Amino acid sequence: MKVIDLSLALLAAVCSAQASATIEYSTVTGYFLQDEAATDPSTFDYTAVNFGLIDRAYPADSEKKNHCETKTLTQWERFYNQVEKLNRDSDEDVEYKVLFLGRHGEGFHNAAESYFGTPAWNCYWAELDGNSTASWRDAALTPNGVDQALVAHNFWQKLIQEQNIHTPDDYYVSPLTRTLQTANYTFEGLNLPHGSAQFKPVVKELFREGISIHTCDHRRSKSYIHNLFPKWHIEKHFAEDDELWNGVTSETSDAQDARSVQALGEVFFSSSSKKHSFVSVTSHSGEIGSILRVVGHRPFRLNTGAVIPVLVKAEKRKDHAPAPTTTVAWTTEPHCTVPPVTSGSVCVCPSSAAPVTTPLVTDL
Questions:
Q1: Minimum mean pLDDT among 34-48, 87-101, 181-195, 265-279: which range?
Q2: CA–CA dist 114, 96 (Å, integer)
Q3: Element spanning 25, H or E
Q4: Which residues contact 180 (CB under 8 A, 6 or more apart)?
Q5: Would the pLDDT of 183 be above 90?
Q6: Which of 128-132, 290-294, 360-364 has the lowest mean pLDDT?
Q7: Helix (H, G, I), strand (E, B) or coil at 117
Q8: C or N terminus of the chain, fewer CB within 10 Å?
Q9: Structural domains in the chain?
Q10: 153 is catalytic
């Protein structure tokens, strides 16, 4: 079977799973500054405002037998009690989880896009493996990207020491190199609280970036990932080679959202799920944007290395309507075969190099 045929078959399966999903998601607002329209994503610094957790009272506070005890708890300890109360008081068809959605640090593809400009990047340079100075196929972190991940590491350690924050019960990470590295720099070596879950993330295919014709979205092999972090878990049925990227077709927003629904459905309502109410997902700007759409959160674009926590309610639907049989289509992206002529906002191929829809081949 050709790669493109296999990709379409796999995505049809994902869309079919999404169509038959029986879980509805919603964001529980009022807990984080990122939920509020007045918070500007472009200037927001999660490390300056306690991950955005709002200083407020919770219904769970009144359940403490000793009110003085509540006053001595940190905001994050009280928030943990509130999430536990929400799960404790909900029926078996409802779950609440706090998703810590972390974007990878700056990758070489991010630096290249800044250098070439977004129009030229999208229609030519991103389809190459790299140039004479850098490689961006399944891009690694730049030194600046490493520093951004270490900022997250230090901030987690600060909140562990000063706020006794409940660290993630489960860790998930996209299979692309920049996210693998970011998760490792962020969480490896933290002095975790006694009894907390150890950092052994699950590498999850469906939490990868939106799949475009850009080579930075083409993941490496399962063997490469295992050799890079041999103690990590790679989910079952993870293919040795990337069967979704083909360099010709790109995921639409609707198709990516279908994938995100499927991914979340494999995180919620699992065994002991209500006891695992804090979850870390190290992913990408586009995929985090998709997850936020799926859970009904307002758009909130993250800078490289940033993190957004979201309190999500998941509820199993009561109806049993038959699943639709349609799938979500992808789109074909034309691109230039030589460096384009560009303006500030568009990409124009030279007249001698009409746009094509086949992968570019380089010697890099």
A1: 265-279
A2: 38
A3: strand 23-27
A4: 173, 174, 203, 225, 228, 229
A5: yes
A6: 360-364
A7: coil
A8: N
A9: 3-106+141-333 (3.40.50.1240)
A10: no
Helix 285-294 vs helix 253-265: angle between axes, to the nearest 10 degrees? 70
SS3 57: coil
Q: Which residue is it, tokens 């520093």?
A: 147
The CA–CA distances, whole Å, from 150 to 48, 111, 155, 158 equal 15, 18, 8, 12
- Is the pTM higher than 0.85? The answer reads yes
- Report residue 272 CA to chain centroid gap: 23
Whole-angstrom CA distances from 140 to 146, 217, 231 are: 10, 12, 20
DSSP 8-state symbol, 240:
S
Please give the Cα distance from 181 to 107 (Å, whole number): 10
| CB-based contact 279:360 (threshold 8 Å) | no
Provide the pairing of β-strand 331-332 with 249-250. Answer: antiparallel
Residue among 113, 127, 205, 209 flagged as catalytic:
209
Give pLDDT, residue 274. Answer: 79
pLDDT tens digits for range 25-67: 999 999 999 999 999 999 999 999 999 999 999 999 998 655 5
Asked which of 34-48, 57-71, 113-127, 243-257 is least confident by mean pLDDT, the reply is: 57-71
- What is the rounded end-to-end Cα distance, in angstroms, of the chain? 27
Q: 209 catalytic, yes or no?
A: yes
Dihedral sign for Cα 207, 252, 339, 4, please: positive
E-strand ranges in the chain read 23-27, 94-103, 170-173, 202-203, 233-234, 249-250, 278-283, 307-316, 331-332, 341-342, 347-348
Comparing C-alpha atoms, which of 179, 141, 193 is closest to residue 284? 179
Q: How many CB atoms lie within 10 A of CB 30?
A: 10
| Residue 53: strand pairing partners | 32
| Chain position carrying tokens 């019960």 | 169
Selection from 28, 178, 12 nearest residue 90 by Cα: 28
